[in-house]
């Protein structure tokens, strides 16, 4: 471990927070260009299933590469392994399972897919490098209230996200088109229950990790997805 790299990882985390704030501002000025907000104008687009798989895959592949190419000293400790597993479980579902469940989604602009891919490379490296080389936890950290509450929030948030995606996939019967208001689950209480679940999930991860890196990811997710949810609520 190099002390300088630890400082660099902290700097990358602070930069991620800044990028989240910038992204939030830009989303208020420029509407997102995929899904129901996709522009009808011709553009280079990627089929929905391929786009989601490609853009999310780095968050699964990069951590595996980081851990394979180094000694991953900190992964000898249970808290580090559990936290990294939390990250990988989400992105295994998001990159390998979720795309296969998509029903005729709208193609995604190439630049949107590229931005998401770039972020997943960045954040995948940040989280995995920190947890595998620099995060220091006591062996009993998994019994600490912060970890236990954070883990429960992570699990609840992931289940909300998966269930909400299921509701969205089944909004329209075969052959139906156009926008429909989702009903059921947390959609009865919030406009974008899928986004709400993901925000809860990564806030739980941040609490369980009790780190600048985890907090930066939660902050970025909050900034981007809350802005997206506001678009849904005030189209």
TrEMBL record:
Keyword terms of this UniProt record: Differentiation, Endoplasmic reticulum, Lipid metabolism, Membrane, Microsome, NADP, Oxidoreductase, Sexual differentiation, Transmembrane, Transmembrane helix
Record's function text: Converts testosterone into 5-alpha-dihydrotestosterone and progesterone or corticosterone into their corresponding 5-alpha-3-oxosteroids. It plays a central role in sexual differentiation and androgen physiology.
Membrane topology note: Multi-pass membrane protein
Residues annotated as transmembrane: 108-126, 147-164, 205-226
Catalytic activity: 5alpha-pregnane-3,20-dione + NADP(+) = progesterone + NADPH + H(+); androst-4-ene-3,17-dione + NADPH + H(+) = 5alpha-androstan-3,17-dione + NADP(+); 17beta-hydroxy-5alpha-androstan-3-one + NADP(+) = testosterone + NADPH + H(+); a 3-oxo-5alpha-steroid + NADP(+) = a 3-oxo-Delta(4)-steroid + NADPH + H(+)
Localization of this protein: Endoplasmic reticulum membrane; Microsome membrane
Family: Belongs to the steroid 5-alpha reductase family.
Identification of the protein by name: 3-oxo-5-alpha-steroid 4-dehydrogenase
GN (gene name): SRD5A1
Domain 3-oxo-5-alpha-steroid 4-dehydrogenase C-terminal: start-end pairs: 107-234
Enzyme Commission identifier(s): 1.3.1.22
Listed InterPro entries: 3-oxo-5-alpha-steroid_4-DH (IPR016636), 3-oxo-5_a-steroid_4-DH_C (IPR001104), SRD5A/TECR (IPR039357)
């Amino acid at each position: 471990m190099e002390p300088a790299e630890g400082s660099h990882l902290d700097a990358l985390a602070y930069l991620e927070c800044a990028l989240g704030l910038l992204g939030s501002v830009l989303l208020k000025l420029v509407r997102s260009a995929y899904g129901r907000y996709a522009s009808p104008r011709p553009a280079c687009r990627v089929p929905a299933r391929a786009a989601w798989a490609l853009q999310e895959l780095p968050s699964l592949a990069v951590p595996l590469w980081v851990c394979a190419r180094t000694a991953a000293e900190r992964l000898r400790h249970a808290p580090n392994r559990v936290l990294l597993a939390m990250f990988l479980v989400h992105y295994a579902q998001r990159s390998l399972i979720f795309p296969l469940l998509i029903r005729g989604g709208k193609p995604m602009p190439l630049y949107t897919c590229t931005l998401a891919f770039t972020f997943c490379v960045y954040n995948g490296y940040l989280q995995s490098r920190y947890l595998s080389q620099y995060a220091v936890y006591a062996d009993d950290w998994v019994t600490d209230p912060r970890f236990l509450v954070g883990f429960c929030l992570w699990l609840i948030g992931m289940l909300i996200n998966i269930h909400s995606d299921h509701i969205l996939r089944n909004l329209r019967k075969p052959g139906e088109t156009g926008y429909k208001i989702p009903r059921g689950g947390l959609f009865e209480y919030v406009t974008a229950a899928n986004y709400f679940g993901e925000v809860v999930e990564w806030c739980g991860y941040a609490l369980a990790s009790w780190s600048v890196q985890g907090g930066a990811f939660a902050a970025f997710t909050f900034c981007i997805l809350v802005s997206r949810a506001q678009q849904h609520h005030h189209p």
